[in-house]
Amino acid sequence: xxxxxxxxxxxxxxxxxxxxxxxxxxxxxxxxxxxxxxxxxxxxxxxxxxxxxxxxxxxxxxxxxxxxxxxxxxxxxxxxxxxxxxxxxxxxxxxxxxxxxxxxxxxxxxxxxxxxxxxxxxxxxxxxxxxxxxxxxxxxxxxxxxxxxxxxxxxxxxxxxxxxxxxxxxxxxxxxxxxxxxxxxxxxxxxxxxxxxxxxxxxxxxxxxxxxxxxxxxxxxxxxxxxxxxxxxxxxxxxxxxxxxxxxxxxxxxxxxxxxxxxxxxxxxxxxxxxxxxxxxxxxxxxxxxxxxxxxxxxxxxxxxxxxxxxxxxxxxxxxxxxxxxxxxxxxxxxxxxxxxxxxxxxxxxxxxxxxxxxxxxxxxxxxxxxxxxxxxxxxxxxxxxxxxxxxxxxxxxxxxxxxxxxxxxxxxxxxxx
Length: 418
Fold this sequence. Notes:
Elements: H1 2-24, E1 26-32, H2 41-54, E2 58-64, H3 70-79, E3 86-89, H4 91-99, H5 121-126, E4 137-143, E5 145-149, H6 150-155, H7 171-184, E6 190-193, H8 200-210, H9 228-239, E7 243-246, H10 251-259, E8 265-269, H11 271-277, E9 285-288, E10 300-307, H12 313-327, H13 330-340, E11 343-344, H14 358-364, H15 381-396, H16 401-415
Helix pairs in contact: 8-9, 15-16
């Protein structure tokens, strides 16, 4: 009887242990936009494998998104009650869009960690709403640039119009350089792509920098792209030989055209683009700040994790463990940053030392001090982006710039509730 009782107790213990393990196991989903190698399945899986060494009972399923259909996929999932548990993107989506609509989890507890207190203030400000709810925990950042075909510019004697040391040029220098390259036989030199919102940070930065215009007010409560400076900039682009407006392409195609020398410059560029395309390019790339009459103000990029509130506290807890794992320990965090191909959001020395991209990252670090206002958290942002590329299409088709920009601002501010 004692043996039978002992066996029964043992079986009960095994059964109870199995039930506990089954209850503690969690399956969570991670959807990630193509932020550097966070858009590569193998790279993401390498990080997940390290997470599972510590949390073997949290199973992470990954879906890779792109910037053409990704937003539609996420919105469809939200409407169907199937939003991912974790998503990797930036404040314009996580804070100003899905967070503002009440879909996201407040991550204030993750921001209480000691390492979170080291995050740069400008980054922190972009990750919460006006009420102080944190809908993003950031991983990486960069300053978006443009780029030129150095070999082509040299052959066209256009390098004289830019400063190779500071990677800056004046608006007049840009005009003269485009003319020189155009006269050399390159047509088009650059394209204002406007087939959709992909990469629109490039066209916004180009327009805002040329004559010192702004996209929103400093408080990020209203859109101000109808300023005289921006009207002047768009009129310049509309009438420049060598610059075209192309409603058939978005930034990803512009990048391809630049890399295959169909274009002499790209307005959508950054360190990750150079890393991803360096083996496909047969010319020297020179990254540049956008032309400006003063110091350039580059569009910044911030990317990190957001959690959709799917009503399952156990999954939310598991998702928070994943985010904390990727961002707290310096060694793991460094890998997460390296995977992005961008820069850390808190002080972390020698992130890329010893890697095959160390020289590229050192080169692009010169642009970080040029980062301007992160205005993408303005209300109505999703609609404003759509209005922007629609406006560019109308201008490219010959529309009156002042009228078209006024329509953009009216529609964007209406979306913002103004």
